[in-house]
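Re-run with default settings, no changes from the original entry. Doing this only to confirm the output is reproducible before filing.
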Amino acid sequence: MNNNDAKSTRYKVDGKCREKIYEFHGCLWHGCPRCQPDRSVEIGSKLTMDDVYAKTQQKIKCLEQKFHVEEMWECEFDQLLKTDCTMKTCMDGFNFKEPLNPRNAFCGGPTNAVWLKYDCRQ
């Protein structure tokens, strides 16, 4: 099983350990009601904040049928960094020298269209 797939669900998850699922919700992309008070604002996919929040809640309800779900919103995490010295010390220990480069995820594999067209001949 892929590490970020919840067994027997159609959803990808942020983390899984035995029967526990961990979900981290970015406030903008999941429609946090505290941080995004204007619920009619549309984001990239022409969905409103209410729409993306409803989809997030639907996913959580589905996951809760089979797993214990631990959720955290981005704004809660940011607040935790301000108030919890242990958490801040831990996060400060990560020294990111440069931004992530998605191209590094290919691990040396092909990154271009190797075969654009294939003619089948009988």
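Helices lie at 27-30, 49-64, 74-83, 85-92. Residues 49-64 form the longest helix (16 residues).
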